[in-house]
From TrEMBL:
Membrane topology note: Multi-pass membrane protein
Upper classification of the organism: Bacteria, Pseudomonadati, Pseudomonadota, Alphaproteobacteria, Rhodobacterales
InterPro entries, A to Z: YciB
One protein family per Pfam: IspA
HAMAP family xrefs: YciB
Function, as annotated: Plays a role in cell envelope biogenesis, maintenance of cell envelope integrity and membrane homeostasis.
Transmembrane segments: 18-35, 47-68, 80-96, 108-130, 142-160, 172-190
Main location: membrane
Family: Belongs to the YciB family.
Organism: Aliisedimentitalea scapharcae
Name the record gives this protein: Inner membrane-spanning protein YciB
Protein location: Cell inner membrane
Length: 206
């Protein structure tokens, strides 16, 4: 390794990385399940369990993201954007005692990511390649196909989140947000195996 290697080359234990990325979400879900049927009076205002769980989730998300940055030396644009939206919309939900702000957050995240990928596609480029090229070495055509599919997938998730939070109970939305969205993303990439087989680059080519 050369003397000029920067902090972006820092490695982190995979289990610790997963704990930092998923920990705040798991703790939010646990807090909501424990507090969902309770109402707390603070400063003369009544707050339900969802708002209190959100109030705890925001600082946890900040701390976990800062820890990831400290340990790895870098953050992806997706992590930064997600943190900003969590702080802004989570903060608005707590400040105005209105859970709608926090429930809209996934919609805006997926619209933003889908929109950015869509703009790149209109310009004949794959912005996904710029973000994930080191992790997924693919031929250019493979990147374009994957980007088109992921763009449509993100936009579909945005619509789905809006439909769920506007028509279902808070409890159903929490389960959907915690498990449904994560499972959907996992299944999406699991079903893209044909792209990686057809357009994947060997290590020598990459």
């Amino acid at each position: 390794m050369t003397k000029g290697t920067d902090v972006s080359d820092k490695k982190i234990n995979g289990k610790l990385k997963m704990a930092l990325e998923l920990g705040p979400v798991v703790l939010f879900f646990a807090a909501y399940v424990k507090l969902k049927d309770q109402v707390f009076t603070i400063g003369g205002a009544d707050y339900d369990g969802f708002i209190l769980a959100t109030a705890g989730f925001v600082p946890l998300m900040i701390l976990s993201t800062l820890a990831l940055w400290k340990l790895t030396g870098k953050l992806s644009k997706m992590q930064i954007v997600t943190l900003v939206l969590v702080v802004v919309f989570g903060g608005l939900s707590v400040w105005f005692n209105d859970d709608r702000f926090f429930k809209m957050k996934p919609t805006l995240i997926y619209l933003l990511f889908g929109g950015v990928l869509g703009i790149g596609l209109l310009r004949g480029q794959s912005y996904l390649k710029f973000a994930m090229e080191e992790m997924l070495p693919l031929e250019q055509e493979g990147w374009m196909i994957l980007t088109r599919r992921l763009c449509g997938f993100f936009l579909a998730l945005a619509v789905l989140n809006e439909a769920i939070w506007r028509t279902q109970t808070t409890e159903i939305w929490v389960y959907f947000k915690t498990f449904g969205l994560s499972a959907a993303v996992f299944l999406f990439f699991m079903t893209q195996g044909s792209i990686f087989q057809t357009y994947g680059l060997d290590e020598e080519e990459g």
